[in-house]
Each structure stands twice: as C-alpha cells, then as structure tokens.
Amino acid sequence: MALKSSMLRVHQALTAAGAPHALIGGMALSALGNPRATNDVDFLVHSEYRASAEREMVLCGFSLVHTTAEVAQWAGDVPIDFLYANRETSQKMLARALASVRPSVFMGIPVLDATDIIGLKIQAYCNNPKRLLQDLADIQKLIETNQIDWERVKFYAETFGEWQRIESFRST
Length: 172
Fold this sequence. Notes:
Elements: H1 2-16, E1 21-24, H2 25-31, E2 41-46, H3 50-59, E3 63-67, E4 71-75, E5 80-85, H4 88-99, E6 105-106, E7 109-110, H5 114-127, H6 132-145, H7 150-159, H8 163-167
Parallel strand pairs: 2-5
Antiparallel strand pairs: 1-2, 3-4, 4-5, 6-7
Helix pairs in contact: 1-3, 5-6, 5-7
C-alpha cells in the first residue's frame, strides 16, 4: 500500500509542479502486464521542470538523498527515483507517453510504452552491468507481452552496441 500511495503522492506533486512525467521501472512493467517485485517507484521527468518538481517533492514531505544531472533519489515512505529527460531521445519518450491516442496509464499516471522501457533497460544494464540479468529478463517479458516498435528498439540497442543481443529476443 505504501508503494501505491507514495506513487500517487509523487504524481500529484509532479502535476502540481507542471512537470511532464511518466512511470518507468518496476511499476511501469506491472502496468504493461509484467508484474514483478519492486521496492521503489521510478519516474521519467522532463528536465526543464526539475526545480519546480523538486520544490513540490519537498513540500510533500520527501527528502532528496542524491542528485546528479541525470537522476534524483528521494526518501519517503518508499524510495522514489527520477530519471531526468535531458536529451532529445528521452524527451521524445516522454512526449509519446503523454500524447498517445491511447496512452498507457496506471492508476491515472502515464506510463512509457514497452518499446521505450526496453530502451531504458538497455541503457541501465550498459551503465551498470550488475543489472544485466534482471533487465534482460524484463526485456524478454516486454517483448512477449507487448507490441514492439523494432526500428526504435534497434536505434536504442545500436546506441549502446547491443543490437545483436537484443535482436536475438525477436525470435523467442
């Protein structure tokens, strides 16, 4: 219950800040039909709204634990992570989640589509090889249960030199 209530509180804070945002991570996997255990909530947040988003988070009782140009980690009832959409690619991901004719939502919160989640998963395990097995398992489940834009996946995978690995999931 704390996970969902914290997720809703953060959504309300980001909405109050006017910050475009969408779910990513384990909660997004659940929303896309691939539930798995998670102990935090992850959001992609447009970087232009960073200051107002952070002010609202503090007003809602969250404490900033760690921040870089790319991420912010928050403490509260449950850990909350923001990945900031700083670049054109991640901003397009966010725009797709918000402008979709039939957007994927979970408890009223926009969710990135499966293809874009795969792109973030590739980036995550390339940045932290300890995540490789979990992220590859998540990618496989997303492919099995969702419609995938393979041209976009190829773009993401080639960015990190991972196309050969990811392409192997196409036939499974």
